[in-house]
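Most newcomers find our protein records easier to grasp once they have seen one. Each record describes a single protein and holds just a pair of labelled lines. A learned vocabulary of local backbone shapes supplies the integers on the structure line. Nothing more is needed to start thinking about how sequence determines fold. The record below serves as our worked example for the rest of this section.
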Amino acid sequence: MLQVVDIGPFALRTAQLLIIVGLAFSLEVITRYANHRNANSQSLQNSLWIGFIVFLLGSRASYIALNWSVYQNDPQAWISLTPQAMFPLGGVALVAVALIVYTIPRSIPLRPLLDLFAPGIAVLIIFVNLAFLAEGDYFGRETDLPWAIDLWSADRHPTQVYAVIGGILTLIIWMRWQMRLTFSGQGFLLIVTGNAVTWLLVSMLLASPAIVFNQYRREQVMMWVVLVVVAFLWNLWQNDDIQAAVDQPS
């Protein structure tokens, strides 16, 4: 765990630096991918800034919702500058909602736009998970496994590392399959699914999980909701494209 990086006379929290670097990489990845697909446009640039602002706000709001008992009596803490206090998949969900609101009045196709965002979102989630590791957030239960890390005075599951590995594997799967995707929007859903499954598994190893409905971890419940929504959209969008192909005149 490295909470502070010294850069000359300045000291910067590692989590903040990782978020900044992650945003820069994500914007570059999306721009390059859009250029590769000949999709660079003013609407894309506008959507990028809207998307990433909403991602940061949505990730923060999701974290507050998941830790409401800590924040409910301290409203000033809602806007404190703690970028590591984020839950990225909540931000991704709100990005999708924001893009729907932005694109529908302007008749901009939503699903191709989400597909353009997909690799950048994957990269940013990896950097957010690294920020969790730097700050010691979402730490794991104690274990005697040989790859345990010394964190908060105990040998623990490196849950943040597991999340980073899951994010990288998700991005690799997307890279191998993105030319063979069968319907518009599938790339975005693939990125969301991979990271949701990752956090579904990681949450089982968290040290101090909050329990809801008397037996379930809150992160697990949220990830199951995400996966149900993804399954619904997967079926809906796939059927829409199949029907559009059938209806297209030969």
